[in-house]
Amino acid sequence: MEYIIITVFGIFAANLIKLYLIIVSEGVYSGIEAIKDIKCMRYNYVEPYKKFFIEICTVLLMLYVFYKGESLKEIIGFTLFTLILLSAALEDIKSREISNIVPVALILSGLVSIIISGDIFGRIMASLVFGAVFLLLSFVLKGSIGLGDVRLISCSAFALGFERMLGTLVISLVLVFLMSIILLSFNRMGRKGVIPFAPFILLGFLVSIY
Asked: What are the DSSP E strand ranges found in the chain?
């Protein structure tokens, strides 16, 4: 029964993600029109996302985090972070940009986790440390790491805490490195090419909780 509930929740969350993607790419009016279409079970506005691809991914991810969460507070934290990063990853892949809604959502997710489990000081310090380190790297590497990525990393650290974010980042950077080598080897990207980082943060997080 619980897996049926999670599946239904995943489908509902997937439609919220679609609505978010429509609003950030086409505006609020298009989002309102999309709500009407969703009510009528038409998905005209989400053709670029292969119709049910987002539903399948979201449901599978919800089942995964539910299985990996060892307590209710972990499941809640994992769920919120996964949904936010999935939204950011899809947006980053499509437009190479992440709206201001994502950092705000990550901060709210962190506040929910603080209410459940405490540790506000640790999360603030994690956000400041990771943010400062990657901001410095952004200047040293002359923009190879975008300020949007720095903001995403800092807010993700607040949502996850220091230890979880450290594991997530290590895995994410390894995956980015491997992907860069593959793309360069097959001439699919120039030496100054840009890889969307949000999908790799999501993948790093998912691997870190395995």
From this structure: none
* Nearest to 62, CA basis, from 88, 80, 50: 80
Instruction: Please choose, from the candidates 142, 192, 27, 16, the residue with its C-alpha nearest in 3D space to the C-alpha of residue 90.
Output: 16
- First-to-last alpha carbon distance for the chain, in angstroms, is 24
Q: How far apart are CA 131 and CA 148, in angstroms?
A: 11
- In the chain, domain spans: 99-210
- Copy the structure tokens of residue 90: 């899809």
Q: What is the pTM of this model?
A: 0.86
Stretch (H or E) spanning 135: helix 120-140
- The 3-class SS string of 97-114 reads CCCCHHHHHHHHHHHHHH
Contact (Cβ atoms closer than 8 angstroms) between residue 10 and residue 38: no
Q: Which of 175, 160, 200, 206 is nearest to 60 (CA)?
A: 206
Burial of 84 (0-12, 13-18, 19+ CB in 10 A): buried
**SS3 call for 2:** helix
Per residue in 141-171, pLDDT (tens digit) is: 776 778 888 999 999 999 999 999 999 999 9
Q: What is the DSSP letter of 196?
A: -
Name the token pair of 52: 């049910």
With CA atoms as reference, report the closest residue to 57 among 3, 17, 92, 95: 17
Dist CA 20 CA 144 (whole Å): 27
Q: What per-residue confidence (pLDDT) applies to 61?
A: 93
